[in-house]
Amino acid sequence: MGLPLISCGFLAWAATLRVAIVTRSTLNWWLFVGNAALNVLWVVFLAQDDTDDFSSPAGNTGMIGMLSTGAAAIAYYLYADFRHYGPQRHVYAGYYPPQGFQPPADTGYGYGGPTRPMTGPPVQNQPQPQPQNQPPQPNHAAPPRIDQVRAELDELSDLLRRDSGEGDKR
Fold first, then answer.
1. What is the 3 state secondary structure string of the chain?
2. I need a labelling partner for 121 at 20 to 30 A (CA). Which of 31, 65, 70, 138 fits?
């Protein structure tokens, strides 16, 4: 919020107003009202100064008060903003799980139930010839679900090849 800085403290109330609106805290609303009252007070001091450079005691008091109120508003705005939008304290915001609660170990990609292997005819993997210029693929241990998906995709590609081969013979 650069308004207090750009306006030399005259618009310091805008920062505290934003904090009060965002946090909806009674304390922040009271700080906004106090900041606005202080800004009015500093303007009254500045209005009593009849010099061009605010060099009288009233002008100095008004300027020092206005600048310090603006600095305090900026500091509090940053504190309140970091506290409001900072890291959350609880895993479940607004919800406290029962004592001893443990989340389910395997919920199946977030769809609500544990994963089960699909039942169906056994899939026979046919060895695919590898081109001579490619190095052999390293054998990584994959989770069973990934192996199942790979087998189903291989079966589908074989089926599509057979269908496309029959279409060429016609």
1. CCHHHHCCCCCHHHHHHHHHHHHCCHHHHHHHHHHHHHHHHHHHHHHHCCCCCCCCHHHHHHHHHHHHHHHHHHHHHHHHHHHHHCCCCCCCCCCCCCCCCCCCCCCCCCCCCCCCCCCCCCCCCCCCCCCCCCCCCCCCCCCHHHHHHHHHHHHHHHHHHHHHHHHHHC
2. 138
